[in-house]
Design brief:
17 strands, transmembrane helix, membrane, 6-stranded mixed beta sheet, alpha/beta, 7-stranded mixed beta sheet, Peripla_BP_I, ABC transporter substrate-binding protein
Length: 518
């Protein structure tokens, strides 16, 4: 049977219908599946770079959502002008670490080093998951941990960590995944390419907040055998094979609050649950924790609202009309809040006028969160005037700890180091500096255990992961927020983490027994 060959007069098939078209399609699909990794390789168009001298950073996103993502190491880049000071310090320390290896002082041997990445948003907007103030304090805390590990110049000698010596040194790589963590994929791709070589990436710290993107990033890191240590992750359903957390879980927050609220007279335990209805791991699991731990307080009394933060807001946000009416009708004195901190002030404003509906009793808003009280700072005067109290279960209580009240043993050396590095105490109020310090510190503790036992200059990702599950008993982590223990049965959560209760305005005269994670 003769073949149907095109004659010289037949039209030439379009390029996209032949083998070249198939190959081009495969290439395009590969680029899309990789999340645009090619942009971060330094081979993209120079116009896509955030700065000409920082090839690891590119602009991503359309229009007003365009922002700088990628990896910063030895060349400083201020993702926001308010981050200029701390990013300069981190880049300078990373260069000093490299110089100790490449150009040691006369008579000194080269000092080996590895990389730990801080994966988190570095940009912010009015609706982003993290305000820029919390991003800045996160970087300051992570840098403090880096400096303590490296015994930075100007740091008090007492602040060196000193576990099994002082090597390897740490380069702190800043990995910006976008204000709502939507660009995590190309950044994780970039980080995964850094796990080999003479100075490998051995762990990822930070991990942003408890949103679906965090889960996906953690799963992808686990696929690539990279351990991750979350700083402020509390959602009980954000779990992955190689993900650890230094914060309590939302269930722990609820249990700590129950321990306090059970001291109330029975007639004051009538609660109303106000929850954010969005697809957000934190708010969903906080609601579930309240339902499990406070079923007898809440019963069927509940109402939803639409939060303002993140990219998935559907409907009109921050409408508390229904919450106001229902709390007035039931005369509830406890309001269980399952929402983000940025929306808390609007609830306070709404409830402050409850005398108009005949609700004349004080109200306590119950919160499990890190930094929610600080985000409601604008309404502190209103809280006093309207007899509303916020009772927050938190991972930190820096206000009391700075005064020496109930501070964990690891807080004092952290505080001295933080001050040595010229950061003001006010930057500690939201707790993000402490928790990001502890996230990086945990990674350092594990990798130094490897080198201390083996004598190897630089451990790999598998070695560090193995040791993270051995951080208990004699190897407990002396973190700034409390001694932390991890083992292969903890599900990535810390044992023995204290959960302080913060009261605003003012503080409780009798805080009661301190709850610790199991």
């Amino acid at each position: 049977m003769p073949l149907n060959r095109p004659s010289p007069l037949d039209p030439v098939p379009p390029w996209w219908k032949g083998l070249r078209g198939i190959a081009a399609l495969v290439l395009v699909l590969a680029l899309l599946a990789g999340g645009g990794f090619w942009l971060l390789s330094g081979d993209g168009d120079g116009e896509d770079r955030c700065a000409e001298d920082v090839p690891g950073l590119v602009l991503a996103g359309p229009g007003d959502d365009r922002e700088c993502i990628g990896v910063m190491n030895e060349t400083a880049y201020a993702f926001d002008p308010r981050l200029n000071d701390v990013t300069e310090k981190i880049a300078a320390e990373n260069r000093r670490v490299r110089d100790q290896w490449e150009k040691p002082a006369a008579g000194r041997t080269p000092v080996p080093y590895v990389k730990v990445a801080l994966l988190t948003p570095m940009t912010a907007s009015d609706s982003s998951v993290l305000p820029i103030e919390e991003i800045r304090s996160s970087l300051e805390g992570a840098y403090t941990a880096q400096c303590r590990a490296n015994a930075c110049p100007g740091l008090s000698a007492v602040n060196a960590i000193g576990i099994h010596g002082r090597t390897p040194q740490i380069q702190l790589v800043l990995a910006s995944e976008g204000r709502n963590q939507t660009h995590w994929r190309p950044v994780v791709e970039r980080l995964s390419g850094m796990t080999g070589g003479e100075h490998p990436l051995v762990a990822v710290a930070g991990m942003g907040v408890s949103v679906p993107e965090t889960q996906r990033a953690a799963d992808e890191l686990a696929q690539r055998k990279i351990p991750a240590i979350g700083a402020v992750l509390t959602a009980t359903n954000v779990n992955s094979e190689r993900l650890f957390k230094v914060s309590p879980s939302n269930t722990d927050y609820a249990k700590a609050l129950r321990k306090r609220l059970d001291r109330l007279p029975a007639e004051q335990r009538r609660g109303y649950l106000v929850f954010d209805s969005r697809d957000d791991n934190f708010v969903r699991t906080m609601r579930q924790a309240y339902d499990e731990v406070f079923a007898d307080y809440i019963d069927k009394r509940r109402v939803s609202f639409v939060g303002t933060t993140g990219p998935r807001t559907e409907g009109m946000p921050s409408l508390f009309f229904n919450a106001f009416n229902n709390i007035c009708l039931t005369k509830s004195e406890l309001v269980f809040w399952a929402g983000r901190g940025r929306d808390l002030a609007d609830l306070v404003r709404s409830l402050s006028s409850r005398n108009q509906c005949g609700h004349d009793k004080p109200i306590t808003i119950v919160v499990g969160s890190q930094g929610a009280v600080q985000q409601a700072n604008d309404v502190m005067g209103l809280l006093k005037d309207s007899r509303i109290t916020i009772l927050e279960a938190s991972a930190t209580d820096t206000g009391q700890w700075i005064r020496g009240n109930g501070a964990p043993s690891g807080f004092k050396p952290f505080l001295q180091g933080f001050r040595d590095l010229k950061f003001p105490d006010k930057e500690l109020s939201d707790g993000y500096a402490v928790m990001h310090h502890d996230s990086v510190l945990t990674a350092v503790w594990a990798l130094r255990m490897v080198t201390g036992q083996t004598g190897r200059e630089t451990p790999g990702v598998q070695d560090v992961f193995n040791q993270l599950t051995n951080l208990h008993d004699a190897a407990v982590v002396p973190a700034a927020s409390g001694d932390l223990s991890f083992d292969d049965a903890s599900g990535g959560w810390p044992h023995n983490k204290p959960v302080p209760i913060i009261q605003a305005p003012g503080g409780a005269a009798d805080p009661g027994p301190l709850y610790k994670t199991q």
